[in-house]
Amino acid sequence: MVLLKTERLTLREFESSDWRAVHEYGADPEVVRYMQWGPNAEKETQDFVRRAMAHQREQPRRHYGLAVVLQAEDRLIGGCGLTVSAPEHRGGWIGYCFNRSFWGHGYATEAARVLLWLGFNRLRLHRVFATCDPVNAASARVLEKVGMRREGHLVEHEWQKKRWRDSYLYAILEREWNLTSAQAPSSA
User: Fold this and answer.
1) Which helix (H) or strand (E) holds 47?
2) For position 113, which CATH number holds?
3) What is the pLDDT of residues 132-171, one digit of tens each?
4) What is residue 89's DSSP assignment?
5) What is the maximal distance between C-alpha atoms in the chain?
6) What's the CA gap between 77 and 141, in Å, rounded?
7) How far apart are CA 168 and CA 140, in angstroms?
8) 105-114 as b/e, with b when 16 or more CB fall inside 10 Å?
């Protein structure tokens, strides 16, 4: 079970009752415009939460989908995740998505740092990567703020929402992460 806290956020496992809060951002076309999925119908959101809960029982576990809760309001404001995509190479990737009402407050950066901490300090990964649409400057800034470097520009590598999509590829190595001496979140 994963439960991590920062000064403002709690990252915890998804629960079945979370689907309405997830749907609030998952059905918003503005929120999901750069995502491979969405906007979601209610059933798609419920299925997502069920899959996230099923991953909690995996052995060995490779998918860590986590609800992001704003502690001050005890409100689910987004979701984030880390996937161990190449266990034999100790590699993984991260992603995040937040309710539009909570954009611009540094929550995505805070959550991404926790995901990297989880990947490097708890799961002992060697390399973690992320992708973002080149048009999504806010997401690129998040990845750069947490110490990831842009390694490339993937041209038309995904068919998404009836068009070819480019992506920026960002990554960070364990040794680079260790140089930042990022503070560990508290575990409950």
Assistant:
1) helix 42-55
2) 3.40.630.30
3) 999 999 999 999 999 999 999 999 999 999 999 999 999 9
4) G
5) 43
6) 20
7) 8
8) eebbbbbbbb
Domain that holds residue 17: 3-187
SS3 label, residue 81: strand
Each residue of 39-78: pLDDT tens digit? 999 999 999 999 999 999 999 999 999 999 999 999 999 9
**Residue 182 pLDDT grade (very low, low, confident, very high; cuts 50, 70, 90):** low
If we measure between CA atoms, which residue out of 110, 151, 107 comes closest to residue 131? Answer: 151
* The amino acid at 30: E
Q: How many helices (H) and strands (E) does the chain have?
A: 5, 9
- Is the CB of residue 34 less than 8 Å from the CB of residue 93? no
**Contact predicate 126/172, CB 8 Å:** no
